[in-house]
Amino acid sequence: MKGKGGALDRRSSARWRLLLLCAFSFGLGMLFTNRFWTAPNTNNHIMSQHRRQDQELQLVSEDCNTKRKHGEHKDIMGEVTRTHEAIQLLDKSISTLQMELAAKRSTLELVRSGVPVTSETSQSRKKAFVVVGVNTAFSSRKRRDSVRETWMPQGEKLLQLEEQKGIVIRFTIGHSATSNSILDKAIDAEDAQHHDFLRLDHVEGYHELSAKTKIFFSTAVGIWDADFFVKVDDDVHVNLGMLATTLARHKAKPRTYIGCMKSGPVLADKNLKYHEPEAWKFGEDGNKYFRHATGQIYAISKDLATYISINQPILHKYANEDVSLGSWFIGLEVNHIDERNMCCGTPPDCEWKGQAGNICVASFDWSCSGICKSVERLKDVHARCGEGDSSVWSDLI
């Protein structure tokens, strides 16, 4: 019996040892598993944190660099702006000196040529907004009278227009080929009556209009310190209030050339009215002129008038005066303003536009290069297309 009991105890003890071994193995396996599988997760977490920190540092660095570059950009732009303002100031100073030089030179040329120096030319230049030169001829007395009776004020009103609005209007004319001729005396008498002429050191002639244009601007810029200078023919109707309003819109622009821009054909045929003797300079037959303002009316700013005065001796004259003026500005930084209300037709065209609220600056007939039979028709055009006598005195101008 004792032998059997000892065998049972040994078997029972072996089972417990086996159970303990299994339990120990299980525990060891769990420990091994936690150690070798949990650790990589922890390392990944740490590495992920490091990556996020690196990214955050990179973002902060990039943000700093961006702000620094933005600050540098602002500093550079500030320097550019200040430099640009300094250049503009210097350019304005140079332009002023050039204009003063042109004024003195124009007066000196008048003295040298023997032209009587009036109080206007002997004094400092008068301030004005616009000087309107009405181109006229010895034979155009009736045209001048029709202008005086319509859109051009007379007597005290003409002076008030200059003093209160800065709008100066003068008929521009030179002298005859014969000194102190009957033609010159007639103009002297007319001027003594109306006081509305600007006499030019120029021999009158149809084929000398380009030269007359140069001399007008050179003379006018020597007398008046005006923002604009306008040339208009004596057979064109003008609304002075609308002219001043239109010019005022472009006052801040430098080197401004305003008018109805066109590009007509270059006429090589000697039998045609507007024949261009130097047609070969414009290329082959059938070519057109460069863009330029039509000659009935146009305006230029004082810097361009000064340029003409300074360079008068070397400015080339073509057969057509409007082409000549346009050619003087080729190659310059000039603002060409195509202002279509400066070339309206006569009634009903200008009348319909006025009724629609688009009052014209100037009206004429293209077929006649002016108003056809202007002496007879100007009053009717003024009555139907005029802006009203009070418009030029408006506070808006």
From TrEMBL:
Gene3D superfamilies tied to this protein: 3.90.550.50
Top EC category: transferase
EC number: 2.4.1.-
Species of origin: Triticum aestivum
Pathway(s): Protein modification; protein glycosylation
GO (cellular component) term, any one: Golgi membrane
Domain DUF4094: 18-106
InterPro entries (UniProt xref): DUF4094, Glyco_trans_31
Name of protein: Hexosyltransferase
GO molecular-function terms, A-Z: hexosyltransferase activity
Subcellular locations according to the entry: Golgi apparatus membrane
Membrane topology of this protein: Single-pass type II membrane protein
Cofactor (UniProt): Mn(2+)
Keyword Magnesium: no
Main location group: Golgi
Entry similarity comment: Belongs to the glycosyltransferase 31 family.
Keywords for this protein: Glycosyltransferase, Golgi apparatus, Manganese, Membrane, Signal-anchor, Transferase, Transmembrane, Transmembrane helix
